[in-house]
Give the backbone structure.
Amino acid sequence: MEWISNSRILIVGLGLIGGSYAKALKRLGFHVTAIEKRRSAVDFALANGIVDEAYTSVVGDVVASADAVIFGLYPKVFVEWIESYQQYFRSGAMITDVTGVKSCIVYDIQRMLRDDVEFIASHPMAGKEVYGVENADDAIFRGANFIITPTEQNTQSAIAWAQSMGRLLGFCHIAVLSPEEHDEMIGYLSQLTHCIAVALMTCSDNQHLVDYTGDSFRDLTRIANINDAMWSELFMLNREMLLRYMDIFSSEFLSMRDMIEKGDVESLREKMRLSTERRAYFNR
């Protein structure tokens, strides 16, 4: 499928990311339809011009009319949706997703999917500390990273299609990784950081800390305002990689504690110099 102006796009799941995709694609002139079980989300999306059409249940003709389908569902629900409703897909339709884990779902979906429909997995590395279509904002994609995770089952044309979608949405860097490489990277860059933020917020129950804090604590804990249903599922589905990086982090943290306890200033400063050197890559 080409990304042409008369393409019909179906988005299943109007959360923050699904809603932001809808907002961006409608602004670019595509006909955007959504399926979302929350009536309040459907009403909001229609009232604010985020979508052209929206439904609270699966309508076969609506699915069949889509040239491309973008899934913004939780991983397990995504798999169940494909099992239940794939018969409605138009022959030749392209399917992608925004799911935060890959190896545990991509192969399963590709195995069960009809031969005349292609699923090319992708992951927009963008978000906010709020959720729901009510907070949709396509500006979060501009300058952000976009990851495509093909398997041997995918065609080069599907990969190119996903790359063109990333460019259309405004992502600045588009990478292609295997599902396993993606999950290893995400275990460190995203899931571990959310664990750290949650742990920081649960260390103290002092409700007056907000009166004293500076930007450092606010910056470190911004993502601690967390969707517990979604993130707990993501953690469990990628637990092997997440536990690996939690162990590495624990080791580093205990190493710094040991330096402080022993008064080893030079080792502590060396650790800080290494941190500054590595952080510089992100400042570019």
